[in-house]
Structures are given as C-alpha cells and as structure tokens.
Amino acid sequence: MGRFSTRLAPVFADFAGVEPGMRSLDVGAGTGALTAELARRGGEVAAAEPSPAFAAALHSRFPGLDVREAGAEELPWPDDSFDVALAQLVVAFMSDAPAGVREMRRVAGTVALCMWDREGMEMLAAINRTRDALGASREDSPYRSRLEIEQLVGDGAESELLEVDADYVDFEDFWSALVGGVGPGGQWAVALDDEQRATARAELFRQLGEPDGPFTLTGRAWAAKA
Fold it and tell me: What is the CATH number of the domain that holds 23?
C-alpha cells in the first residue's frame, strides 16, 4: 500500500485544509506517509501510533517530532491541542472507531478521515474478486463507503472521493509487493501455502487483465471532515 498511501497523503491533507503554521495530528501514523506530508507543510506536527515498532520507527525518521505510542481511543493530549486531526486509512482498523473519532474531536478543531472505497480501490477489488473465485473469505472491513465515513465523522460532515494512481513495472512488481505483506491483501497472500499461492497468483493475474509490461492501478478513497 506504500506507493498508494504516499500519493494519497498530499491529496488528503489538501482535503482536510492543512496549511502552513497549523497544529496537526496524524492518528494511526504507521510508517509516516501522512506525517511526512504534514511536516513538509510546516507548523507543529504530532503523531499517535499504537504499534511500538512503528512508533519507534517514527521517532527515528522524524527526530524531535512529538510521537506518542497510543491508540486513537485514548489520545494523550489535552483538549483543543490541535487545529486538525487526521486519520488516513486507519479507522477500519481501530478497536473502537467511534471512540477514536470522539477523541480526535476532543483534541482538534477539525477532524478528517479517509478509507479506501470497496470497489473504487482497484487493487483491493481485484484481490476480493480473486478470493471470491477461489472460494476464500474476502476483506470486507467497515467504513469503506461515503455514508459510513460521513456517519462516523458525525454532524456537519463534508465528504469527497479522493483519487490517486500507482504504477507497476509489471505484474511481478505488483505480486512481489503483495507477498511482502503489504496491506490487507498482502496479509492474505502471506498466509497461503505454496500451492494456494500459485493458484492465487494465476487468478489475480487474470483479474488484473493479464498485464504484459507496465500498468497503473487507481485507488479511490472516501474522505470526510467536520
């Protein structure tokens, strides 16, 4: 997902209205794709990340940045500490997303969320079709529609469909990233045994139109803010 999330970060930050000089918080910062974009725009930037390994990596990557090892549900900052709190591709994986959003609204004047659309994220849609064809359970996490995201943000929500592209040298480039454990689809691929993986590879190649050489996939994410 890295090549998608890196390209999504500036589009999402624009949607959230992040401007130089603002106090911004990246919730569920992960490896720091959005954090880097917020830091590039200037102002005070902080990050919350529940994974100890990712939090440590953020400390190393962004020396001096206010990084806290914390989940969205219990943000360790006082009320109104930030102008904007953003959660990029995170809410579906929170243990309690409504509680996480309430915390974001507590600490920031503006809250912005985004998650990949169920069908508009071409990579995940192809993986789900592959899983269907193989009779495997599909990835169907919540908050992947306009209505779900708007309802999660709450009163006064504004929404927009954000779109980014990712380029691949060939199918092997795509497959190598997937079996490297990238994103929900990657977690599925890693769990397969060798025979299942070979079958899945062939079916996914078919679902992507049997690309011969470079190809591009589009990722569309629903974003909402209030």
Answer: 3.40.50.150
Q: DSSP for 24-87?
A: EEEET-TTSHHHHHHHHT-SEEEEE-S-HHHHHHHHHHSTT-EEE---GGG--S-TT-EEEEEE
Instruction: Answer whether 0.85 is exceeded by the pTM.
Output: yes
Which residue type, as a one-letter code, is found at position 212? D
Q: What is the four-CA torsion angle of 101, 62, 38, 141, rounded to 10 degrees?
A: -40
User: What tens digit of pLDDT does each residue of 51-98 get?
Assistant: 999 999 999 999 999 999 999 999 999 999 999 999 999 999 999 999
Three-class secondary structure of residue 109 per DSSP: strand
Question: pLDDT tens, 158-211?
Answer: 999 999 999 999 999 999 988 876 566 667 787 888 899 999 999 999 999 999
Distance between CA atoms of 154 and 147, rounded to whole angstroms?
Answer: 11
How many domains are contained in the chain?
A: 1
Q: Check if the beta carbon of residue 94 is closer than 8 Å to that of residue 28.
A: yes
Amino acid at 205: F
- Residue-number span of the structural domain to which 76 is assigned: 2-225
Question: What is the C-alpha to C-alpha distance for residues 201 and 199, in angstroms, rounded to an integer?
Answer: 5
Could you please report the per-residue DSSP string of 152-212?
Answer: HH-TT-EEEEEEEEEEESSHHHHHHHHHTT-HHHHHHHHTS-HHHHHHHHHHHHHHTT---
| DSSP code for 136 | P
